[in-house]
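Sequence, please.
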């Protein structure tokens, strides 16, 4: 089974540190390998966060198919001008696929 790696930016409200709707998410790209997805986050974080609008970024490993759930996630938090690895936020535990909306 083939899979892709999706790069997603997420905006949260600081008052509740929660993503309110899928309008607060933006899928930036799909890559054939985790290495390429990580490189995109590293090299393009300035564009992905859009002047601090998107505080979180994540890479999802998604298998091919219709409405498949992400099999793995790597989370990043905006620190200054770049994203750094972080744990999955508690407010995001119930969501199984960010890139598909």
């Amino acid at each position: 089974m083939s899979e892709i790696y999706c790069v997603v930016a997420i905006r949260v409200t600081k008052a509740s540190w929660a993503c309110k709707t899928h309008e607060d998410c933006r899928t930036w790209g799909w890559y054939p390998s985790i290495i390429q997805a990580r490189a995109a986050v590293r090299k393009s974080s300035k564009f992905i966060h859009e002047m601090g609008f998107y505080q979180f970024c994540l890479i999802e490993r998604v298998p091919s198919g219709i409405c498949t759930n992400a099999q793995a996630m790597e989370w990043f938090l905006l620190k200054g001008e770049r994203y750094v690895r972080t744990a999955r936020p508690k407010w995001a535990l119930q969501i199984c696929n960010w890139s598909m909306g």
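Helices lie at 34-48.
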